[in-house]
Amino acid sequence: MRAILTVYDKTGLVEFAQGLSELGVELYSTGGTEAALAEAGLAVRSLAELTGFPEILDGRVKSLHPAVHGGILARRDDPGHLRELEAHGIGPIDLVAVNLYPFVETVRRPDASLQQALENIDIGGVALLRAAAKNFPDVLVVVDPRDYREVLAALREGQVPLPQRRRLAYKAFQHVALYDTAVAEYLREADELFPETLTFGLRKRLDLRYGENPHQRGAFYEEQTVAPGDGRGIAGAEQLHGIELSYVNIIDADAAWQAARDFAEPTVVVVKHASPCGLASHPDLAEAYRRAFAGDPVSAYGGIVAANRPFNEEMAAAMKGVLYHVVIAPDYEPAALERLEKRRDLRILRVPLRETAPASAMDYRRVSGGILIQEEDHYPDNKLELRAVTKRGPTSEELEDLRFAWRAVKHVKSNAIVLARDRALVGVGAGQPNRVTSVHLALRAAGEKAAGSALASDAFFPFPDGVELAGDSGVRAIIQPGGSIRDEECIAAADARDMAMVFTGVRHFRH
Question: Within this chain, do residues 393 and 292 fall inside the same structural domain, yes or no?
Fold first, then answer.
């Protein structure tokens, strides 16, 4: 029995090779793998001895040879194949253990050059894996060091079952597919957002107890990307404490984190069912939390809390007595962490804070039989032109709340209405089939706090009834995209109630 071992990740390599050697397997290798095995005292032969041809082009060509691929691809149940091997003096190869150059790690470095990227595109390794996986009934292919022990155990039993061989072949093809996806992403022009064909690279982070409901199975995958820097968001979270995350926890945690990181000033968000029920900005983070919680104390119970600044002890203390399932922040002061960890089941997540989202960030939405792809909803503040359309323009205080509400409303499910005062949400209406019902809900949640508040609507008012209802309840200013055929009626309704209204020309639907 003969094996080719050539791996970049040398985890468990020596132990695996020792086990193979003890079984009488003849070992062939190249480069660093060969040196590592020889240093461990193992009898290993250069692949050049097998091919009778030296490595050329600085190692670019070493395993691409009939003596290698003929030995791998020959079917053992085909007498013609075996006669050809014998005629050409080629021996069969029974095991191939390969993993590939670190392409993603290389190109994600900010200083990575095109030449470095090209040198880390593995050719020979990919060819070895594909050949061995194609002929898996006769050849063992091992790409994952975690499979070494299982393979050795099966070989010691004398036979590797076909289902096990098939699973190893699947892993090899998937490894190559993930690798090729990364290379394609790197080579694709940054402005080519919607190519004719597209693949995604995903790695499993964890298995979930169940999906959205107990009868559904689920898992959490992290998107592989070659983009430099930290762009993983909630998938890059480090869990510091608490029981395992659920499917719903992850969805809600992502909604909370996306909203919190969208604000430059210290901000706290409380999310329930993937939509903010409380959100506030304040220089004092604990005060921001208290104002966010006050926005809807009833809905906050059992929710998710995210902050875009490190948790301090005062904020952790302010949360006392309220059940939360997850807290998220870029970091935690030791005293705050100690206090939070007293809650046995509370999941505490630390997520690196990325100050700006990449221009090419994309949003994916699964539908039956396909996927919708769009750019994420990032509209720069410096491009937003607010146009006052009423007789009374907003005061400076109202304008500040309008801008706050406009940033907040894009994180609320459409049809979305939010009311804000002093850079804090006081009422939210979300996910309704008509806009006036969302206004009713936001006003009901705000109660007396509606008086003097600023209202943001994620899309235009199709009728003046929402404006009338808001004005009659004490709302003093409105920000909305405009563009309705009844804009003039809406403006007249605002003027009749001495309200200020500004148009953005931009909408923020979130379905």
Answer: no
Cis ω before 415 (30° cut-off from 0): yes
Domain count, the chain: 3
Is the domain of 243 the same as that of 325? Answer: yes
Known active-site residue 342 = no
- Out of 81, 134, 171, 325, the active site residue is 134
Whether 14 and 89 map to the same domain: the answer is yes
Contact yes or no for 384/479 (Cβ under 8 A): no
Q: Is residue 34 one of the residues assigned to a domain?
A: yes
Q: Is residue 200 part of a domain?
A: no
Which listed residue (62, 88, 273, 508) is catalytic?
273
Distance CA(411)–CA(259), nearest Å, equals: 6
282 is an active site residue: no
Residue 195 within a domain: no
Asked if 82 and 180 sit in the same domain, the reply is yes
Tell me the residue ranges of DSSP E strands in 51-94. Answer: none
CATH assignment at residue 422: 3.40.140.20
Residues 138, 256 within the same domain: no
Answer with the one of 157, 187, 217 that is the final residue of a domain: 187
Residue 451 structural domain: 377-503
> What number of other Cβ atoms are within 10 A of residue 421's Cβ?
24
Please give the chain's pLDDT, 511 residues, in tens. 999 999 999 999 999 999 999 999 999 998 889 899 999 999 999 888 887 777 777 667 777 788 888 899 998 888 888 898 889 888 899 999 998 888 888 888 888 888 888 888 888 889 999 999 999 999 999 999 999 999 999 999 888 999 999 999 999 999 999 999 999 998 998 888 888 888 989 999 999 989 999 999 999 999 888 876 555 788 889 999 999 999 999 999 999 999 999 999 999 999 999 999 999 999 999 999 999 999 999 999 999 999 999 999 999 999 999 999 999 999 999 999 999 999 999 999 999 876 444 445 788 999 999 999 988 888 887 788 899 999 999 999 999 999 999 999 999 998 999 999 999 999 999 989 999 999 999 999 999 999 999 999 999 999 999 999 999 999 999 999 999 999 999 999 999 999 999 999 999 898 8
Q: Give whole-number Cα distances, 239 to 267, 325, 347, 350, in Å.
A: 21, 13, 7, 6
Residues 290 and 391 both lie in one domain:
no
Q: Where are the beta strands (DSSP E) in 247-354?
A: 267-272, 275-281, 303-307, 324-329, 347-350
